[in-house]
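User: Please predict the structure of the protein below. I'd like the answer in structure-token form so I can feed it into my own downstream comparison script.

Assistant: Understood. Taking the following sequence of 357 residues as input:
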Amino acid sequence: DDYRYQDFDIVVTGKDESDIKVWSVELMNKPGEYKSRVDVFSRDANLQNQVHTYHENFSNVQLYDVDIATNYRSPSASGNWGDPFALAFAYTGYNSTKKHSFVDYVFSKNGGQNFTKGLLYVQNGEKTIDKMDLSLGSTSESMGHNAWPLMGVVFEMNKQGGKSDIGFLSNFVENDPQFQWSAPIKVSKTNHAFSPKIQMMLDEDNNTINGESCHNFMITYSNYDSVYVNWDIRYVYPKPSFKYEKGKTPTMDDLVEGSLAASFWNETNSGLGYDKNCNNYLITYAQEEGGDTNTLKYRWANYDKIHDKDLWGNIYTYTSSTNDLYTPQVDINPTKNRVCWSWVEYMPGKRIVWTDT
């Protein structure tokens, strides 16, 4: 029927092979028209026994980007609420009737049996909102919250002529109207930013930074440095003043923004993961180096030390190539102490998607 895939994302739940479900969210557009679809499927570990759990058709929309997340790896420590698990996805697009770009958010609090949709943010104009990322973390009873997870969404906004800001919105997984922010927080240093990523913390018992009780998450993005005329990776994390309060919107005064990776070369396309066993963020990114060498780098940052890069792990080179390397992604098995990367290599006449554990 001439629809084409625009974007696709997966997440996995399950304790063992017989319990595994692979959830996919799929965006499709009809070329040359404002017609599109959003679909969610669950499949078993062998990608069989497909169940169609969510579907929506649009007759006036073009879709851009999608991401799916779950709190399955970090259920409530108290055992209250949060059963069986939360599943959520967010996507961006353009509504040709209303003439605005948007971020939509869809969530399930019963393990993907039922979904509820809500609009997060709109902005006038076509493709003024574009690439985005979503993460579900945990809440903490010690900080006065219920046991449903917190969600965080970051996205390119105010996009025009190759420039964009990075916006940040957060709430409880059910997008509670009482806790909705009045507007996104613009977290980027300049309006020359792209490819935002977010990782909400996946441990409910240790919400601290430098020993102080604090919400814990990390945002990364690519930023153009007009002084050195190259691309760097910058990051954002919360101060102790960052709170979820009814009717109140945090500001950049409640966050810290700074340089994560910078050199005379280009650093772009960051990816984030979280190691629940060791309470470490895993940061990966692509770096262009001299002599036609391109590398993927990574380093670890303990959740309590994200304020001080001198206390982070060393920077390692994961792989290198004379070809361009793009879009590194990383994920961590919560029980087997294994990490899996994926990335794209541009070779003459073709592109290859690599994965490695």
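That's the full token string. The mean pLDDT is 92.
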